[in-house]
């Protein structure tokens, strides 16, 4: 059973209530009232709607509609080619183990939810990969604080994962423990991972090694001189030590928390370890220092949406070496996010903007993180799925921008004057998806011309879900009204 979490969540971190079922009439009402985004025409027999969420009063006080022709001109700008699913998932070992439950196979609802998200690439790791031991390797009693706090992978983990992947057919990346592990552990993990994978396998070396403690024994509590060189040298040394476990499978790395820390030596690290994919982490906000640093206003800011652009140099460095680059771990705010921000519809709008920005910055994919906290795209409890709005962004990215799509920015002074950012995506099926995003502080009014029929899909920072409907226009014109932080995808053939 699938349920949607109320926003914000009430009570404990994972608390949720049943989402009422919505019939066709209720869905239509939601679509028509969502910011007044469909002004006219409406489907036959439906009442014409007003523009809730848009400016009211005399027409003179409303902005003139920004006119845009739905035609070949939408595709004239240089394109970004979508070569893999643009939205993947990254999940911690204990979170995935809990989601898969105690049976021989995970609950069917888990496979169904991953399929809803587009069966995206699945990476297992994060901070837990450097704290995880293979089944049966930890001795009792523990001999140190470090060994006593390691996570022992359940004995049935790999069989359950194989059962899950046999249904979803997701490509798999497995994180190996560099910080507290050894080659024997990595070899066991890799061997068992090969029994689970069904559609490709790669391995990730370490998690955020730029944050590993590097003691300066000559002057404790002081940074070591030449810290970047020392960090990268040790990472290369341990990476070479663990590489035999990976065999012929490709490697993802170096999984940096702050890529700029290794900016000078990153190309050397990539070449030295023979990485197949360059992966880095990125969170636009943080709760690590204070919850006050994470707000809905900050999450919906242009800075948060465009944060992948600040790492475009990583993608360029990878491209110069003939390699793909991905943001292998991301979400709204580091240290697990914040309830009331990270689990609201605003997080879904942010995630969609972030994914498009990552593609434009040269990254092939963003893997949105699960850590058992408020920013998780969905939650599994007792075999039931509790959806969260960020999951809607994964659905939108993988549905609107499937592999083989070309993504084009649509420059328009008239749209920009109303705060609207536009992109056009030419999909392999021949359809064009025009994505209109009101990033301004005022409602926007748009008139699409040359469009006799289309499917419209809405994402909003104030409502959950992706309501959609088909419209037909005898005049080949479709007027739209967008409230601030609403996104409409218009899908049609040219």
Helix/strand-derived category reads alpha/beta
- Look at the structure and give the mean pLDDT: 89
Beta strand count: 25
Q: What strand line-up does the widest sheet have?
A: 4-5-8-9-10-11-13-15
Fraction of residues in H or I helices? 25-40%
What is the overall silhouette?
globular
Looking at CATH, the homologous superfamily of the largest domain is Glycosidases
Tell me the number of helical segments per DSSP (H or I, 4 or more residues long): 14
How many discrete structural domains? 2
Describe the structure in your own words.
The protein is α/β, with parallel strands linked by helices. Helices cover 27% and strands 23% of the residues. It folds into two domains: 32-80 and 407-492, Sandwich (Immunoglobulin-like), CATH 2.60.40; 83-400, Alpha-Beta Barrel (TIM Barrel), CATH 3.20.20. It contains 14 helices and 25 strands. Helix 6 (183-196) packs across helix 7. It starts with a strand and ends with a strand.
Give the gist of this structure:
This protein is α/β, with parallel strands linked by helices and 494 residues long. It has helices at residues 24-33, 93-100, 108-116, 145-148, 157-168, 183-196, 227-246, 266-273, 296-299, 302-305, 312-320, 345-360, 389-400, 413-417; strands spanning 2-4, 66-69, 80-81, 87-91, 122-124, 132-133, 151-152, 172-176, 201-205, 251-256, 277-282, 285-286, 325-330, 333-334, 366-370, 378-381, 384-387, 406-409, 420-426, 432-438, 444-449, 453-460, 468-472, 477-482, 486-492. The protein folds into 2 domains: 32-80 and 407-492, Immunoglobulin-like (Sandwich); 83-400, TIM Barrel, CATH 3.20.20.80.
